[in-house]
Amino acid sequence: MITTVLDKQTNRNLSFSVLVEQALATGEAFLADNGALAVETGKYTGRSPGDKFIVDDAITHDKVDWGKTNQPFDSQKFDQLLDKVTEYLSKRKTYTFDGYGGASKQFRLPISVVTELAWHNAFAQALLLHRNQITPEDEANKFLIIDAADYKADPAVDGTKSETFILLNFTRKIVLIGGTQYAGEIKKSVFSVLNFLLPDRNVLPMHCSANIGKDGTSALFFGLSGTGKTTLSADPSRTLIGDDEHGWSDEGVFNFEGGCYAKAIHLNPATEPEIWSAIHYGTVLENVILDPTTRKIDFDSSALTENTRAAYPLNFIPNSIVPSIGGHPKTVIFLTADAFGVLPPIAKLTKDQAMYHFLSGYTSKLAGTERGITTPQATFSTCFGAPFMPRPPVEYAEMLGERLDGHGSDCYLVNTGWSGGAYGTGKRMDLAVTRALVEAALNGSLKTSRYKPDSIFGLLVPEECPGVPSSILSAKATWSDASAYDLAAGHLAGLFHENFKKFAGVSDSIKNSGPIDKF
């Protein structure tokens, strides 16, 4: 039955223009006034992490970190649901895109994406690297992603938790998606597959953006959705490697993708000119509101969700590099959107502190990035990407530590969240200030700064930074009520300690690099 679906060669690797025509003809999408393809994803406007499973079999059983994030799925149930989905698709028009995950020829994974929606295939075409020819070797080694967006599972029969399902089967090399039109599930499934496979090839998979300075040195920006990876890496003074998913091998860093997936809410040309100029024909806009008469885009509207998105090819950013590969990074930045407003805007990390905060992965989930999230919520997402990391987190952390040591990379923690108070009281960090702080970290200005350890979190906070008022560098100093800050900071410190209890086999030097127990 799978062969029947894939043999529909007439709809394989259609041009973006043809896919646009198909999507418009079937009412899947609208055309914005600037030529972008605009779609609504319906009930699901974000990922459904609770509906993602990995088939438990001989390949995965001893390697996956099973639990709430990586949920096991029965192989027989998978086969039964696969048969149902392929029978469903065999009676419908489907579209196939052939691409790669990974810009490095040495490590790239052939991928074919089969979808029932034309715009989903346009999305895959915008974000994945293209396979210019279909070779027998690639076909034999490829991973197949089947997305039946409108097929709903029966949990009582199919073994899923809801009508929605994202199932990864590493033995059969298939990802099965259904019950959701949110295209981000396709993108993140590719990431999850690579995150499982690449460590065995001595490649660290990372949820980060990456760029290159004029001096030829690379930089990495780790962070969850909404923390600023895409925005801060799209720097006109630096060359973009990629905005979200990368690998770090013995040769350097390489992008997993061929496109960018930017948050579009409140997008404007003054603060994000590169992303603004990238959105035109060839871009897929998710849940962005259009004027019904003029088709003019309203980037400020959150009528459908805060998680509005723009998917576009990497070369739409003028200063991107092709192939998207760079050398070993000299600067590594951890981005966090601190909803408590108690972390400093920037802090230098020792190697042990870097390992502590990489394992912790603290940030705040922002509205719309996942179903049900409407206000920022404090969360700890290991490796700044726990939903996509199938292996035990310490395995990824040890690989990062080895690379930081081996290449002498400097590491900083940057708070793109709140200052002067918690969410609802304080103010979101100004993007211009964050850019100045990041620039100082990248150009080496902060190497000569005087540092003062934070009394609660132990972070090394610079006392001065070019172009930034010194008064905002201390988080506590921005609060009008010092005792209220202490209470909020103490609460967050407690959350750090409670979260870190789950990590076994971590050295004492790393365990002791977090916040103090009492103050």
Largest sheet: 9 strands, mixed
Percentage of residues assigned to helices: 25-40%
Number of strands: 30
Q: Find the CATH topology of the largest domain.
A: Phosphoenolpyruvate Carboxykinase, domain 3
What is the typical, i.e. mean, pLDDT? 94
CATH architecture of the largest domain: Alpha-Beta Complex
| Total number of helices | 14
Specify Rg, calculated over alpha carbons: 22 Å
* Bulk shape: globular
The SS-based structural class is: alpha+beta
Strand content: 15-25%
Distance between the termini: 64 Å
Low-confidence stretches: none
Number of domains: 3
- For this structure, what is the CATH class of the largest domain? Alpha Beta
Which descriptors apply to this entry?
single chain; 14 helices; Phosphoenolpyruvate Carboxykinase, domain 1; alpha+beta; 519 residues; globular; 30 strands; Phosphoenolpyruvate Carboxykinase, domain 2; Phosphoenolpyruvate Carboxykinase, domain 3; 9-stranded mixed beta sheet
Description:
- The chain is an alpha+beta fold.
- The chain has three domains: 2-23 and 51-201, 3-Layer(aba) Sandwich (Phosphoenolpyruvate Carboxykinase, domain 1); 260-316, Phosphoenolpyruvate Carboxykinase, domain 2 (Beta Complex); 328-511, Phosphoenolpyruvate Carboxykinase, domain 3 (Alpha-Beta Complex), CATH 3.90.228.
- Helix 2 (16-25) packs antiparallel against helix 4 (118-127) and helix 10 (351-360) packs antiparallel against helix 11.
- 26% of the residues lie in helices and 24% in strands.
- The longest helix has 19 residues, at 482-500.
- Strands 11, 12, 13, 14, 15, 21, 22, 23 and 26 form a nine-stranded mixed beta sheet that branches.
- The protein has 14 helices and 30 strands.
- The N and C termini lie far apart (64 Å).
- The model has no long low-confidence stretch (mean pLDDT 94).
